[in-house]
Amino acid sequence: MTVNLRVKRPDPLLRQLVKALETYAAAHPAAEIEAYRHNSVSVRIRVLDSAFAGLSRAEREEEVWAALNELSDDAVSEISLLILLTPDEAKESFASHDFDNPLPSRLRTPATYSVPST
After folding, report:
1. I want to staple 71 with a disulfide (CB 3.0 to 4.6 A). Which of 23, 45, 75, 109 is the partner?
2. Of the candidates 111, 112, 97, the residue with the CA atom closest to the CA atom of residue 44
């Protein structure tokens, strides 16, 4: 399973996040993972995985953060939303609905966005 992006050309930091999330995706092939840059300082991530059934929020975070812990502090600081749900929970989740229908950010996302590579 790959990580789905809402942009054709992700910036370097978003590529770093995707690379880390692909580690989780490789271990959880049924997971649906999506990420996008909401604005110049904010990335949103949603992981829908039936393997989350019966797990607490903390247990779900431990699973996903095991993959994200390899990231730089700069990359981690850009994650503003991390949604971890089962597909059934997503149907009732306001956060998941907002992920599918995001309100425009008041911050502009510059056409050229650069992040120091690490």
Report:
1. 75
2. 97
What per-residue confidence (pLDDT) applies to 112?
A: 47
Q: How far apart are CA 18 and CA 86, in angstroms?
A: 20
If one counts every other C-beta atom within 10 angstroms of the C-beta of residue 51, the result is: 14
Instruction: Kindly report the pTM of this predicted structure.
Output: 0.82
Which position has the higher pLDDT, 107 or 58?
58
Per residue, what are the HEC states of 22-44? HHHHHHCCCCEEEEEEEECCEEE
Cβ-based neighbour number of residue 90 at 10 Å: 17
Quickly count: other Cβ atoms within 10 Å of residue 79's Cβ.
Answer: 15
What distance separates the 2 farthest-apart alpha carbons in the chain? 42
CA nearest to 41, candidates 110, 102, 101, 103: 110
- Dist CA 40 CA 113 (whole Å): 7
Amino acid at 18: V
Among residues 101, 16, 90, 4, the alpha carbon closest in space to that of 45 is found at 4
